[in-house]
Hints:
Number of strands: 13
Shape: globular
Helix content: 40-55%
Oligomer: single chain
Strand order of the largest sheet: 3-2-1-4-5-6-7
Number of helices: 16
Distance between the termini: 8 Å
Low-confidence stretches: 206-212
Order of helices and strands: EHEEHEHEHHHHEHEEHEHEHEHEHEHHH
Largest sheet: 7 strands, parallel
Radius of gyration: 22 Å
Mean pLDDT: 92
Structural class: alpha/beta
Amino acid sequence: xxxxxxxxxxxxxxxxxxxxxxxxxxxxxxxxxxxxxxxxxxxxxxxxxxxxxxxxxxxxxxxxxxxxxxxxxxxxxxxxxxxxxxxxxxxxxxxxxxxxxxxxxxxxxxxxxxxxxxxxxxxxxxxxxxxxxxxxxxxxxxxxxxxxxxxxxxxxxxxxxxxxxxxxxxxxxxxxxxxxxxxxxxxxxxxxxxxxxxxxxxxxxxxxxxxxxxxxxxxxxxxxxxxxxxxxxxxxxxxxxxxxxxxxxxxxxxxxxxxxxxxxxxxxxxxxxxxxxxxxxxxxxxxxxxxxxxxxxxxxxxxxxxxxxxxxxxxxxxxxxxxxxxxxxxxxxxxxxxxxxxxxxxxxxxxxxxxxxxxxxxxxxxxxxxxxxxxxxxxxxxxxxxxxxx
Length: 390
């Protein structure tokens, strides 16, 4: 039996469908959430049992050497559970990104944040702030302890546990071999790569004809994918500031992630470009509406240093949009190996606006779509799942 330790996320439903096609009846799907709190997972095969509950212990009590465990989001609870199992039980992890390269917080921060965003992260997100209120000495001491005493100890514990986890990990499920190489560069491990990707459904409707209602004469730029600091928004805004007097519009998705960070980014963007040129998305949009919005975009500007925003990236390429990624990103590096037309955000300060906005030629768009089908091969993925889960 395959035990899948999962979170309540929009990609999980499609994975359950694929896993049942590959190995029907041979999977148990456990969601680390109470049913009444779940927002995304709708599959009747899902079992809702947070990892700390007796219900979870009941579901996993029979795991043995003939079973496999697969983690879909590497939380510390999932790490601890795998480490509690006999080493004879094979374990795999499906790569999401932030659950690996951002944890522990301090370990990899200089490789995933731009220099200015790093300062924001260290100031606002890395550690709990001290409540400097002399009238509340207990609160002051408690928050001081969390920031300066408990935090380093906690980080060391997480790092030690993850070192142990990767030493005993068997399978790394991902489509990008460069991320697999990253694991081997940062951990002592013998983990093997198994080809896999979640279904992001990026292709446009209407038989490939993009829906559009964009304002004529205006270059619309999609900036980042979420209100998370790994988007490196500040570096991106400063790179694009040279075009602030040109006919442009920024669409900035800030509708999930940190509300505080989203407010900060929106304020920075408006201050630099003016309210009329900034469309900050702050409210939830369903996937269909969001993809229709992407049809209006001319350029996607994704300044992430780590693997992130893959669904947005593919949606842009399938729609023939011009795509800027950062050369440090493993997505950029793999796409370059396949000769996909992607541009480096680091080159923008040296570009003219005409060069920046020039669209990708139709024949190159067609080639990119073919290359995407090679990189994201559904038939190959299903064959690997069948071999792995049967």
